[in-house]
Amino acid sequence: MHIKSQKDFFCGLMFMGLGLAFAWGASTYNVGTGARMGPGYFPLMLGILMAVIGAIVTFTSLVVETEGGGKIGKIAWKPLVYVIGANVIFGILLAGVPALGIPAFGMVIAIYALVFVASMAEAGWKFRTTLILATVLAVGSYAAFVMALKLQFPVWPAFITG
C-alpha cells in the first residue's frame, strides 16, 4: 500500500494509539452499563471513539489522494517545548512537589502560569491579550470547578490562605 497523505496517516496512528491507551486504562475501572455508568465508562467510550476515528483517518490517508502528498514538515520544537512545559508547570504549581519542597500554589496561579508559558509558543504573543485570556480562564475555572461542581482543591497558595 502507498501512503497518499503522510500527515493523515501518522495523525490516524496517533489517534488509534491514544484511543487504545485510554480504553485500556479505563478498563481497570468499574465500567458499568449505559443505564448505570461507572467511573470507567466515559473514558472507555471516548478511547474507543478516538481509536475508530484514527482508523478512519488512517484508512483515508491510504485511499484519498491529497495535493502535494501531505508531506510532514519539520518539527516545530519551540511550540512543542513551550506547550509541554506549560502543562508540566501547571501540574507542579497546582499540586506542588513535596519531595522537592515546592508547595502547592493553587489553581489560579497555576492557570496564569499555564496560559503565559503556553502563549509564548506563539510567534507574536502579546502580554495584554494573554493576561485577558488567563483572567477569563481563571474566573471560568473557579466558577465551574469550585462554585458549580464543589470540587475540593487549593485555589490559592497555602501561605496566602493560611
TrEMBL record:
Domain spans labelled DUF1468: 10-154
Keyword annotations from UniProtKB, A to Z: Membrane, Transmembrane, Transmembrane helix
Alphabetical list of InterPro entries matching this protein: DUF1468
Key word Nucleotide-binding present: no
Entry keyword annotation includes Transmembrane: yes
Membrane-spanning ranges: 41-64, 76-94, 100-118, 130-149
Record's protein name: Membrane protein
Originating species: Polaromonas eurypsychrophila
